[in-house]
Amino acid sequence: MARCPFCGEEIDEVYIYTIAVFAAKIKDNKLIPERTPLDTPEELAAQTKFVMCPECTSALPLDFYEAEAFLKGELVLALPDECTRKGDFVAYRDEVYRVIGEEENVSGETVLLLKKLSDETIAAIVKASLT
Amino acid sequence: MARCPFCDEEIDKVYIDMTVAFEAKIENGELVVGKEPIGDVEPLAGLAEYIYCPRCLNTLPLYYFELEDFLRGEIALAPSEECVRKGKFAVHRDEAYRIVSKREIDMDEILVLRKLKDETIAAIVKASLTTTGAN
After folding, report:
1. Which of A53, A106, B129, B131 is least enclosed, having the fewest CB within 10 Å?
2. What is the DSSP letter of B59?
3. Is A68–B30 a contact, with Cβ atoms under 8 angstroms apart?
C-alpha cells in the first residue's frame, strides 16, 4: 500500500485539488451552486493542480497519473534523509529502489520518486552495496 | 430574467469555475475521482475564478457576490454601445438603470447596471435620457 512520505501513514486514496465547473442558480430565493460538477472525470484529472495526502493534507509532488502509480505501489515517495543513497539507487524501509525523480512539493520540501527494482538478483546486489 | 451581454440569451443559471478537492482511489485498476467534492461547495463559491454564460460560455464580468442579483434581474450586463447614457444613469432595452461600473472583457466594454427600484425616478431618468438622446 502507498505511504505518505510526510506523515508515514499508509493510504489507499489521495485528495486531488482540481478546477471544476459547477452550475449555480437561484433556489428558494438564494444562489446555490450544484454539488456535482459538469466536468467529466477525465477533465477533472487533466485539470489537477495538486495531490494531497488525506491523512496529513501535505501536498504530494505527483500529477494525476503519477498518483495512480503511487496508489498502486508502482511508485514510492520518500524523504532524502530517510534513504541510504548511492548514485541512482537507494535503500528505504528495507527495500531497494531506483531513483526516477527528485521533486519539490508546493511547500518546497524535496521528495524522492522511487521505483522498486524488479530483478531480485540486482536488488540483492544493490542492497548489499548500500547497507 | 438575466440576459447574457454576449449571446443575448436569457439565462436562469451561470457556470462557475472553482478549485475544489475530490477523493481519488483505485477502482478496477484505475484511479477514479469521486463524483462530488469533499465538503461544502457553497463556502468555496465565493472564491470562484471565472463565471460563464451557460449558453455561449463567454466569461461574465461579475463577482460572485453580484450573481444573485444578476440572476434575479436586479443587476444587468450590457455592452456600452447598446446603452443610452447620461452621467451615472443608462437606459437599456427600455429599462432605466444606475451604472455600477464599467468592466472590460476581451476588449469589450460591458456596463454593470443596477435597476432603478423607484418607479418615479426610473420614469424621470428614462424620459430624460430618451428625449435628449444623451450618450
Report:
1. B131
2. B
3. yes
Q: Bridge-partner residues for A19, per DSSP?
A: B19
- Contact residues, chain B, for A67 at CB < 8 Å: 24, 31
* pLDDT at residue B135, rounded to an integer: 53
**A2-33 pLDDT, tens per residue?**
999 999 999 999 999 999 999 999 999 899 99
Q: Tell me if chain B has a CB within 8 Å of the CB of A60.
A: no
Q: Which residues contact A14 (CB under 8 A, 6 or more apart)?
A: A51, A52, A53, A54, A60, A62, A67, A70, A71, B23, B24, B25
Report whether A85 contacts A99 (CB < 8 A).
yes
CA angle A6/A8/A11 to nearest 5° reads 105
How far apart CA B126 and CA B122 sit, in angstroms, is: 6
CB A77 within 8 Å of CB A126 = no
Q: How close B18 gets to chain A, by Cα (Å)?
A: 5
Q: Where are the domains of chain B?
A: 2-132
